[in-house]
């Protein structure tokens, strides 16, 4: 039997020469340090070894990594003393070194090409919550900031997560209606005040989340003020379950 020529094979045959030409013009380089690598959207061994991925054991609610395995279903003291409004938090890596550089590159240096790689790590770290969800929603930017930045880094990550998982992306369901100041440099209480009342769901869109399991996507989790304010709006609209999924998170000392 002769070999079947499929559309995907034809497409691959057409794309391959152009990809080779692109590699000559823009050689593959490490996304962290710029060292030459064998493939685009990859890291060199030195950068890869410097990443602290968040793996089990961790708090089942806040996803805070534990230094010692304390058993199944263990919660951190923070999750017990001050339970979050969202149902759980999952993050791919600790926000330092190369991970911080990747976040800054995506957020401030127009490195949207990093989003597919970062989203892949997030999907792996989601602990099955993306596979079980009904829809993915990015934390939105206010239209004024979106105009100046030209894109929303959380939406870039959410878009690739939706593509990788074949889940609906609801990019217009949650809006930021209050123009907040930058959260960087603010304390925990100031961050909460800054984002209070910042989010809304447009009229007629509450049905997008009512009774549904939502994955709320952002780039970094620090104090949680932003995702908490967004979650409150989603829960008010009737969301049954909200998982916060970020690429990076700040952590203190491991437990």
Automatic annotation (TrEMBL):
Pfam family name, one: Pribosyltran
Record-annotated Double zinc ribbon domain positions: 22-68
Domain Phosphoribosyltransferase: 189-248
InterPro entries: ComF/GntX_DNA_util-trans (IPR051910), DZR_2 (IPR044005), PRTase-like (IPR029057), PRTase_dom (IPR000836)
Stated family: Belongs to the ComF/GntX family.
Protein name in the entry: ComF family protein
Lineage of origin: Bacteria, Pseudomonadati, Pseudomonadota, Alphaproteobacteria, Hyphomicrobiales
């Amino acid at each position: 039997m002769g070999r079947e020529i499929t559309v995907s094979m034809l497409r691959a045959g057409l794309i391959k020469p152009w990809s080779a030409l692109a590699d000559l013009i823009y050689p593959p380089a490490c996304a962290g340090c710029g060292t030459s690598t064998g493939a685009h959207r990859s890291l060199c061994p030195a950068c890869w070894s410097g990443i602290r991925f968040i793996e089990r054991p961790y708090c089942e609610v806040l996803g805070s990594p534990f230094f010692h395995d304390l058993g199944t279903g263990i919660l951190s003291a923070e999750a017990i003393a001050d339970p979050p409004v969202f149902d759980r938090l999952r993050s791919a890596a600790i926000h330092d070194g190369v991970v911080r550089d990747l976040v800054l590159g995506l957020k401030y240096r127009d490195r949207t090409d990093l989003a597919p790689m970062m989203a892949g790590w997030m999907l792996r770290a989601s602990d099955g919550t993306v596979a079980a969800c009904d829809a993915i929603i990015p934390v939105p930017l206010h239209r004024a900031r979106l105009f100046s930045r030209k894109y929303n880094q959380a939406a870039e990550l959410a878009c690739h997560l939706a593509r990788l998982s074949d889940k609906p992306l609801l990019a217009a369901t949650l809006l930021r209606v209050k123009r907040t100041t930058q959260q960087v440099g603010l304390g925990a209480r100031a961050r909460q005040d800054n984002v209070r009342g910042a989010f809304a769901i447009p009229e007629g869109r509450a049905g997008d989340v009512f009774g549904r399991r939502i994955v709320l996507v952002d780039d970094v989790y620090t104090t949680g003020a932003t995702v908490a304010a967004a979650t409150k709006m989603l829960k008010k609209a009737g969301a049954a379950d909200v998982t916060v999924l970020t690429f990076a998170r700040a952590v203190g000392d491991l437990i």
